[in-house]
Amino acid sequence: MAKYKYRECSDLIKVINNYNSSEKNFIYNLIKNKDFFIGIRHHQLKIYRDGALVLTIAKNRKREITYSTPKHNMPYSKNISNQNSIPLTFEEIEKEFSNIVSTAKKTYKDQKLYEKICQQWIVNNNNLNDSNCFLVDMEYTHQGKRLGRFDLIAISRKPFPNKKYKVYLIELKVGTKSYGKKSSDCGIIGHIRDYLKFFDSEDYYNQLKNNIYNILTCYKLFPFSNPNIPMIENPSDLDSTPNILLVSYSHCPNIIDNVNNKKVDILNMKAKLKECLFNSSKDNLISAIDDKKKIEGFLKIEESNFLNNKPIEVTQKVNNKKYNFTFSFIDADEKDCWKDIINDLH
């Protein structure tokens, strides 16, 4: 197996826990603030607001805490260089942080990055409540073969009867435009192709399991860690195969001010999905995947599955292992519709 840089920053967190009170309290307040998501990366903490990266926290060789923000969050700064990020002192952070957050949020809203905004909204609402799973990460990427990003990674709060915690790989769509403009190369097919490539090698899933374990372990190092964090003791506590959930929201939930986005009803979402996957002769999916054996389960989807509001379930075998795919369709007007994505994790 290749030597990966796993997501691990326990040493950084230990430095933070022993740092001077003002900086430590600032970081603690960010982590405890339900409006922010803390991404555990390789020797870094990434702070997100509404899906946008607002701050990176790291340490230098002198074990001093360092800060930086993407340069587009400070277009007015005199420190902008050819680098993608701007280093900041703690004093500058204290002075500029609210402006940085406002700029990052406005940029994401102006660019209509509604899916990223929804991702964090789902994560924060879910993890602060007693739901049946814990969302571990957003925009997960793997080292090695390029396989795109997984929007959300989740695990069950408790082990199942086999004493294993289930793992869920989640792709979120808002409306149907991101299904893909061209039927033969639509976004949905691209995601399916990435998942199938991911399952081709156990290395990728082993990497993911180790990263999940490391992320949860790091969260627990803070003195105020979330009591809802699953208590896995080893990566082997995670199930041998993940489940895949492709979720479509009818439109952007009412979480962004002044957004004019048209609602798509569930049957129309299903019709668009069918068009992307199959068209009239089912050749879209067939032409996109080299090995037809890897899409046998998808080709067995019956016409009746597209004529009701229920999720579409697919079981697909890859390298003699069975993987469960669920296409879920959610009306974003429903109260607490973030719960629906969780209810489909079974």
Helix content: 25-40%
How many strand segments?
11
Order of helices and strands: HHEEEEEHHEEEHHEHHHEEH
What is the average of the pLDDT values? Answer: 85
Strand order of the largest sheet: 6-7-8-9-11-10
Instruction: Compute the separation of the termini in Å.
Output: 31 Å
What's the number of structural domains? Answer: 2
| Radius of gyration, taken over Cα atoms and rounded to an integer in Å | 21 Å
Tell me the β content.
15-25%
Shape: globular
- Helix-and-strand structural type: alpha+beta
Described by strand count, sense and barrel closure, the largest sheet is: 6 strands, mixed
Low-confidence stretches: none
Helix count, DSSP H or I runs of 4 or more residues? 10
Describe the structure.
This protein has 346 residues and is α+β, with helices and mostly antiparallel strands. It has two domains: 10-49 and 52-110, no CATH class; 114-343. The protein has helices at residues 10-17, 21-32, 90-110, 114-127, 187-200, 202-219, 266-277, 283-288, 296-299, 338-343; strands at 36-41, 44-49, 52-59, 65-70, 85-88, 133-140, 150-156, 167-174, 243-249, 312-318, 321-330. The strands form two sheets. The chain has a six-stranded mixed sheet with strand order 6-7-8-9-11-10, sandwiched between helices. It has a five-stranded antiparallel sheet with strand order 1-2-3-4-5, with helices on both faces. A hairpin with a 2-residue loop joins strand 1 (36-41) and strand 2. The longest helix is centred in the first third of the chain and has 21 residues, at 90-110. The protein is globular, with a radius of gyration of 21 Å. The mean pLDDT is 85.
